[in-house]
Amino acid sequence: MIAKLTGILDSVGEDWAIVDVHGVGYLASCSGRTLARLGQAGGQVSLHTETRLKDEIPHLYGFGDRAERDWFRLLTTVQGVGAKVALSLLSVLDPDQLVVALASGDKVALARADGVGPKLAARIAAELKDRAQTLSLKGVVQRAEPAPGRAAVAPSEAGEAVSALVNLGYGRAEAFAAVTKAIAEGERPLPELIRLALRELSQAARGGGA
């Protein structure tokens, strides 16, 4: 299985790119967001990839980063969401926007993608709400710069922080946003992470009431 392509960008189409790797051109279907990041033909590019069989023919899909590839895999677990629809969703919503849309049940945002009607949007929102937040928290933790002298918090602990805030009566979407901001300040033990997230929520409430 091909997991990554690094080579020269040969050409780009409406929903595909050809990457020349040592004289062999690989055709990869991509989201509009990934295609926009590839630049001009002739430049060096790198794509994370996923191979799927369709009618017993292998098809290659390319992604600008691991997060987009992980979302592609997650989206295609929903009945009715094939590779084409998943790429369409990733063309109109980046991973962070997908989390917000799913956490808030924003079916209108999901339905902006070609091939996603109201019923499918509702199914995606219902099936992926919790799983999407877990996946995104993992990405947030991996991207965060650990503060000096701080032990890194695990993705599972970030999830526990979100659950703790939800148990205190906060909405899951706002709890997720607060924990994300707290992690961005520097990873830290779980109790302090929750304290900082509560501070974020308190500041947001004061700001909203101003």
Describe this structure in words.
The protein has 210 residues and is α+β, with helices and mostly antiparallel strands. The chain contains nine helices and five strands; from the N terminus they run E-E-E-H-E-E-H-H-H-H-H-H-H-H. It has three domains: 4-64, Nucleic acid-binding proteins (OB fold (Dihydrolipoamide Acetyltransferase, E2P), Beta Barrel); 82-142, Orthogonal Bundle (DNA polymerase, domain 1), CATH 1.10.150; 144-210, no CATH class. The protein has helices at 32-37, 66-75, 83-92, 95-103, 107-110, 118-143, 155-167, 172-184, 190-209, and strands at residues 4-12, 16-21, 24-30, 44-54, 57-63. The protein has a five-stranded mixed β-barrel with strand order 1-2-3-5-4. A hairpin with a 2-residue loop joins strand 2 (16-21) and strand 3. Helix 2 crosses helix 3 and helix 4 crosses helix 6. The protein is globular. The termini are far apart. The model has no long low-confidence stretch (mean pLDDT 84).
Give the secondary structure arrangement, pairings included.
Blueprint: E1 4-12, E2 16-21, E3 24-30, H1 32-37, E4 44-54, E5 57-63, H2 66-75, H3 83-92, H4 95-103, H5 107-110, H6 118-143, H7 155-167, H8 172-184, H9 190-209
Parallel strand pairs: 3-5
Antiparallel strand pairs: 1-2, 1-4, 2-3, 4-5
SS element count, helices: 9
Beta strand count: 5
- The SSE order reads EEEHEEHHHHHHHH
What percentage of amino acids are in beta strands? 15-25%
Q: How helical, in percent, are the residues?
A: 40-55%
Order of strands, main sheet, comes to 1-2-3-5-4
The gyration radius over C-alpha positions equals: 19 Å
- Give a short account of the largest sheet: 5 strands, mixed, barrel
Structural class assignment: alpha+beta
Count of spatially separate domains: 3
Point out poorly predicted stretches.
Answer: none
What shape does the CA trace take? globular
What's the average pLDDT? 84
